[in-house]
Inverse folding.
């Protein structure tokens, strides 16, 4: 590749072509950081990252935030600070519309908590637009699901869920602790009464997200009982059900992983219902397709994702059945070379089958690395090869009960499965790998050390 001339001047950056990246998630933040540190710093392109939120939180940790095992405040990254450090600009706001003919993106107004407008709606021109807006929950039009089931798409959802979960545990603890009403003279010590019925939490969908959430919640109940809700009996007072329409949990993984995961979940007293389709979600129950009514104090939907609805408003954009932007192997839309999409919001050919690549952080990360190199090659007038995904395997965490890792090696028809401490270590490494892509190895090590020191002597779960 021809050397990229070093242009440190800001004057050059002012008239450099603008690459507008929308969405600072697992993929978008990596891409903005890489492009900012290279093309942006040298004034070869103006890199702008747009996100509706001011901070980044790595989505695969959401189930840990929802269960209270991870405090989001210690794990968020300020986009503005990252932008200053890495040579890109950050603009807060939600992408509302795109005029592809004029190459203009409309960014919605920013409002505060009371709805007061802070920044009005703006228009931004671009040379290249990269959509990295992730995915939203797919309720598959199940009646009542969007209304009564909680999604898990961002930190706000995780916090909402955690507070409701904590309140439900507090309530059942109070009932278990309350003295029995006695008509006659009070004895010195009164026995606790049993609550009318346990708290019922239903997790719909036993893919990786549902499995990880159910396991994390089961551990969380035990820890809350140990620290704060002393009258709560985790197994008697809190029922956690994991409901899956397919005949086994983790249906896209090897059946051996499904078997081991289900056995582990049952040891944790998670009730696993496979081959069970949800027909309707109500405020206090879910109804299965066989007509069974399962009580529900909280229902969380982890049964699938789709591209955000706003993609439908972009004129002429070809979308998949799951509402994702259809792209070629260079991650460009087929009819507009100035528009790119990657990560969860993109339907990218897998190369090996007719299916699209799955919505996973690993895919988003590899595509971000690919795109950062592809933009540099384009600027240098070099040809750009297509993206090829290299599957490094799948790891599913069961919290303190460990993790399971599956690798599909080309040399063997049978997947390799690893569990125990090796798989658990691998799971922890994934987040650190993401951080090192964003901060560099040195800063990630320092941050990890800081987080370890911060957690020393503190409860292993958020108690309020
Ligand atoms: C609980 C949970 C556990 C998971 N565990 C794993 C795992 O173990 N391994 C794995 O590989 N994957 C896992 N995933 C999937 C993984 O999180 C996603 O595949 C990955 O985050 C996709 O990255 P992305 O950059 O495409 O989108 P995201 O990371 O979702 O980022 C999208 C960004 O776009 C922003 N945005 C959205 N709409 C707009 C708009 N209109 N305007 C401006 N900004 C917008 C959002 O604020 C967000 O910052 C998990 C997901 C969940 C929910």
């Amino acid at each position: 590749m021809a050397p990229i001339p070093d242009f440190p001047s800001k004057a050059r950056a002012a008239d450099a072509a603008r690459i507008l990246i929308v969405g600072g998630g697992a993929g978008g933040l990596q891409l903005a950081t890489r492009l900012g540190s290279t093309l942006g710093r040298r004034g070869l392109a103006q890199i702008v990252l747009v996100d509706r939120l001011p901070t980044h939180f790595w989505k695969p940790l959401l189930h840990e935030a929802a269960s209270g095992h991870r405090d989001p405040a210690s794990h968020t990254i300020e986009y503005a600070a990252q932008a200053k450090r890495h040579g890109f600009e950050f603009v807060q706001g939600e992408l509302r519309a795109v005029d592809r003919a004029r190459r203009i993106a409309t960014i919605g107004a920013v409002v505060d908590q009371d709805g007061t407008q802070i920044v009005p709606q703006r228009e931004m021109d671009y040379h290249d637009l990269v959509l990295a807006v992730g995915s939203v929950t797919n309720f598959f039009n199940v009646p009542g699901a969007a209304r009564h089931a909680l999604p898990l798409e961002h930190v706000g959802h995780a916090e909402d869920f955690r507070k409701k979960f904590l309140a439900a545990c507090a309530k059942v603890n109070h009932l278990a602790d309350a003295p029995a009403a006695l008509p006659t003279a009070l004895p010195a010590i009164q026995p606790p009464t049993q609550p009318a019925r346990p708290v019922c939490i239903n997790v719909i969908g036993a893919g990786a997200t549902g499995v990880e959430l159910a396991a994390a919640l089961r551990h969380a109940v035990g820890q809350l009982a140990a620290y704060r809700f002393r009258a709560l009996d985790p197994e008697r007072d809190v029922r956690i059900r994991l409901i899956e329409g397919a005949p086994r949990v983790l249906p896209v993984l090897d059946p051996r992983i499904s078997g081991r995961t289900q056995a582990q979940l049952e040891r944790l007293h998670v009730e696993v219902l496979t081959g069970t389709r949800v027909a309707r979600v109500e405020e206090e129950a879910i109804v299965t397709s066989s007509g069974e009514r399962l009580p529900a104090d909280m229902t969380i939907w982890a049964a699938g994702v789709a591209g955000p609805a706003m993609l439908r408003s972009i004129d002429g954009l070809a979308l998949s059945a799951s509402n994702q932007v259809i792209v070629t192997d260079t991650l460009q839309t087929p009819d507009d070379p100035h528009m790119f999409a990657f990560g969860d919001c993109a339907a990218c050919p897998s190369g090996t089958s007719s299916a699209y690549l799955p919505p996973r952080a690993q895919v988003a990360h590899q595509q971000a690395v690919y795109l950062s190199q592809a933009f540099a090659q384009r600027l240098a007038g070099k040809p750009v090869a297509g993206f090829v995904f290299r599957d490094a395997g799948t790891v599913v965490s069961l919290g303190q009960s460990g993790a399971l890792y599956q690798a599909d090696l080309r040399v063997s028809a049978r997947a390799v499965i690893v569990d125990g401490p090796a798989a658990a270590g691998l799971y922890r490494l994934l987040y650190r790998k993401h951080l090192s892509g964003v901060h560099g190895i040195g800063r990630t090590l320092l941050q990890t050390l800081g987080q370890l020191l911060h957690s020393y002597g503190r409860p292993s779960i958020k108690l309020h």
User: Anything to note?
Assistant: The chain has three domains: 10-135+307-379, 145-177+192-301, 394-455. The radius of gyration is 24 Å.
